[in-house]
Each structure stands twice: as C-alpha cells, then as structure tokens.
Amino acid sequence: MIFTDFFITIGHRIISCMSFFGGLSNLAGQTIYLTFKPPYKWQRIFEQAKKAGNESFPIVALVALFIGFIFALQTAYFMQRIGSEIYIASLVALTVVRELGPVITALIVAGRVGASNTAELGSMQVTEQIDALETLATNPVKYLVVPRFVALSVMLPVLTLYANIIGILGSYIICVFKLGITSSMYMNVTFDALLYKDLFTGLFKAWIFGMVIALISCYEGFNVEGGAEGVGKATTRSVVFTFIMIIAADCFFTALFYFIFP
Amino acid sequence: MIFGKTKLELKVGIFVFVGLIILAIFILSIGGFKTWSSGYRININFNFVNGVKVGAPVRFSGVDVGEVKRVSLSFVPEESRSNVRLGIWLRNNIKIPVDSSVWVNTLGLLGEKYVEIMPGNNYASCLKANESLTGKDPLPMHQIFNRAENILHNLDEGIARIVNKEGSLGKLIYDDDIYNQLDALVTDIRNHPWKLFYKTREKK
User: Fold this and answer.
1) Residue A226 belongs to what H/E stretch?
2) Are residues B12 and A50, on separate chains, in Cβ contact within 8 Å?
3) How confident is the model at residue A152 (pLDDT cuts 50, 70, 90)?
4) Which of A93, A58, A60 lies closest to A171 in space, CA to CA?
5) Using CB atoms, which residue from A46, A164, A194 is nearest to B8?
6) Is residue B155 part of a domain?
7) Are residues B63 and B153 in the same domain?
8) Is B96 in the same domain as B154?
9) What's the structural domain count of chain B?
10) Dist CA A149 CA A24 (whole Å)
11) How would residue B204 be classed by pLDDT, with cut points 50, 70 and 90?
12) Position B74 in a domain
C-alpha cells in the first residue's frame, strides 16, 4: 500500500506541475496575442505602469544604493590585500549592470507588484467579479492581464537602468570618499570595463523578468480556489514561483549569453 | 492645471523619460563619445601586424589619440607580397609628420596589441586624410623565441665544455695545477721579496 501512495504522490506532483506550465503557456499565448490586438487600453496600462514603476522606485533605489555600498566594501576587503583597489570599480560596474541590477529589481518588483497582482485578481476571482466581466463580454485577460503585462515588461528595464546607475553611485561613494580613488579615475575604469553587450543583455533579462512576474502573478490570481484563505495561499505560491522562475530564467539567459556572446 | 488622467500620464512619462536619459548616459559613456567627436582617417601599410584587432588603440608620442577602424588584407601583384592595411581614425587636432615611424607594440609581454606612432621632425608636411604611411613590421614572436633559443643553445654548449673540463676555461676551473703553481709563486715571493727586483742574468 505504501508503494501505491508513493507513486500517487509522484503522479500528482507531475500532473500539477504540467498543469501549471500548461496553464501558464496558455495564458502567455493569449496575453501576447491580445497585447497586439486593438483596442489598446492606454489608461489602464498607465495606471499599472505607475504602480509598477514610479511606486517601486524608492525601494529599488534604496536597495540598489545599499548593494553598491556592500559590494564595494566586500570587494575592498580582498582587493586591498592584493593592492588593486581600482578594479573594484570595474567589478562593481560589471556585476551590477550584468547581474545584480536586473535580478534585484525583479525580486523587489515580484515581491511588491507580483504579490499585489495575485491578491487583487484572486479576490476578484473569489467574489466572482471575473465571471461578471465575462458575462459583460469583456475578456478578463484583455482587461486585467494585458495592462499588467505591458506595464511590467516596459517598467522593469527602466527600473533596472535606475538600479544600475544608483548601484554604481553607491560604490562610487565608498571608493571615492573611503578608499581614496579619484572621481575621474573611478568613472574611467567603470566605463572602460563595460561593453554595450553587458548593458543590453542586462536589460533584456529585465524585460524577460517583467513578463515572468506579470504572467505568473496573474495566473495564480486567476486560479484561486476557496475564499480569503485561498487568496493568501495563492499569493504565497505566486511569490515563491516567481522567485524560482526569475532565478531559473536568469541562469538560463546568463548561460545562453555566455555562449553566444563570448 | 493638470488633473487626474493627464497627471498620471505625466508621472509615468517623466519616469520613463529619465530612464531613457540614463540609458543615453550609459551608451555615450561606454562608447566614450568617440563616435560623435570629429576626426580623420589615415592608412598604414604593414607586412605583418601581429594580431592587431579593430578597436585597438593608437598612440602618438605615447598618448591615446585614436583607434584602428579597419584591418584589410590585400595582395600586391607587382611586388608579389601580401599587404595589411590598417585604417586608423585620429582626432582632428592630431598632426602626424610624414617622417614618423609606426610599429605595432604590445602592452606587457603577451598583452594587448596597439599601434605606436613615434613623431618625426618634419612638421612642415603632415599627413592629410586618407594618406598612407608605411609601418615597420614587428618581429614575430616565434622569431624572437628562435633567436633566444639559438643564444641559449650556444651558451649551453659553452657551459658543457667548461663542465667537461675542456678548453682553457674548463682547465682553469677544474685543474689544480695552476692553483698549485700560483700558491708556490706567492709563497716564494713572500719568502724572498727581493726576487721581484732582481734581474736574472741571461745565461749564455
């Protein structure tokens, strides 16, 4: 009997995993199709863009600044031992622009905006407002998902740009005022180390992360079952899955870019 | 005044616009403003360039003044040899005398390659746009290694002869004879210093 239970558990896991990715792909397909299909809901896109972009900016800026401080101090610990403090600038520039900028921004936005999307859509689902939309001949995907999808996929690269410049600024403050590297030297080394591909692969990743956040949070919101408790569970699942998918997508694209742009 | 809908759009617009400004700052800083400052091009002909790549820096009197924009290889039928032509971009205010010498230099022993221009004296006639100069070919790395190897080989043979107690140096080092004789000489002179001043009479 215990064996049967074991296989039932495995089977159940596999089926729920398949149905998650299947539903997600289905939603992604519909969303991308409806994004390009008029009429465009500019007003709703702007509302979501303000929520995802402008309102996330303070926390993204704060975290990016601290990341800059921390990274400069942590690398200084070793770089001072081998007497090459000046390379802190290039290390920070490359790490922030290629990796930390997009990923930290995406994680913050996933926690902030993704969770709120799931909770909002989830409570609409349990109070049957989504069914109501459908009876009014309004496609809920067009009305609810597309604005969030467009807003997040535009706003994440923009937020990443802010995070990049603020992260570099944070390490600049440490290097110039604490480690005695001159200001112009710091800037020269920073921008000597960076290439266009570093900047654009970072922004491309941010764009992908934006879409991942929007799709997973809306999918979880649509699939809430039960009442208020279900909304809570779905929000947790949404944040956890988004985090996992962001890191997985990051790993995939980092490896891909490593091999196609050596 | 701006209300409601327009105000929302204004906020988002400003936010994205500042983001685009940051993007422009990044792009301009990474490109180093080179693309936008004015300059001119000259060509330099080589037989061998030791792996100079597009984007390699060009130094005039040791100062970075431009970069390599194009590397093209062509065949010269008259002289039956291959010619490497480097298209070089220089800032407008740089004057290159026609008798300058140009060669490919390396940062460190195996570092990045760059084009070094040592200014000549003839500032009366400077290079104009699209004019050409002939560069001195760098010595290929394998030739340097070959020469070093030859030197080492010769040195090795010499040392081997010394170690094998051959030749006068080998004998000098390994033979006790000369030491004993010197020792005897010094002892003799100590005992009889007057011998240094004594001129022996030639025997007939």
Assistant:
1) none
2) yes
3) very high
4) A93
5) A46
6) yes
7) no
8) no
9) 2
10) 13
11) low
12) yes
B37 close to A (CB below 8 A): no
Tokens (6 digits) for A70: 């921390």
B54 contacts chain A (CB < 8 A) = no
**CA angle (A177 as vertex; A176, A182 as ends), nearest 5:** 30
Residue A67 Cα, gap to closest chain B Cα (Å): 19
A43 contacts chain B (CB < 8 A): yes
B124 with B75, same domain: the answer is yes
- Whether B8 is covered by a domain: the verdict is no
What interhelical angle do A146-177 and A2-35 show, nearest 10?
A: 90
pLDDT at B8 over 60: yes
> What pLDDT does B168 receive?
78
Percent of chain B at pLDDT above 90?
5
Q: Tell me how far apart the alpha carbons of residues A127 and A134 are, in angstroms, rounded to a whole number.
A: 14
Candidates A94, A165, A183, A184: best to mutate against B (most CBs of B within 10 A) is: A165
Q: Which chain B residues are closer than 8 Å to A94 by Cβ? A: none
B161 with B179, same domain: the answer is: yes
B89 shares its domain with B44: yes
The pLDDT confidence band at residue B10, using thresholds 50, 70 and 90, is: confident
With 70 as the cut, is the pLDDT of residue B35 above it?
no
Q: Does the distance separating the beta carbons of A53 and B16 come in below 8 Å?
A: yes
Percent of chain A with pLDDT over 90: 60
3-state secondary structure of A203: helix
On the question of pLDDT at B37 being above 70, the answer is no
Q: Does B154 share its domain with B169?
A: yes
**What is the pLDDT of chain B when averaged over all its residues?**
81
Segment among A198-207, B30-39, B130-139 with least mean pLDDT: B30-39
Residues B63, B123: one domain?
yes
Q: Which helix (H) or strand (E) holds A128?
A: none
Q: Is residue B120 part of a domain?
A: yes
Task: Select the residue of A50, A159, A191 nearest B8 (Cβ to Cβ).
Answer: A50
Q: Which one, of A163, A167, A48, A67, lies nearest residue A112 by Cα?
A: A48
Question: Best of B3, B26, B33 to disrupt the A interface by mutation (most A CBs within 10 Å)?
Answer: B26
Chain A residue with minimal CA distance to B22? A161
Same domain, B131 and B50: yes
Q: Taking residues B133-153, report their average pLDDT.
A: 83
What range does the domain containing B99 cover? Answer: 39-138
Angle at B78 between CA B72 and CA B80, to 5 degrees: 65
Residue A57: predicted pLDDT: 93
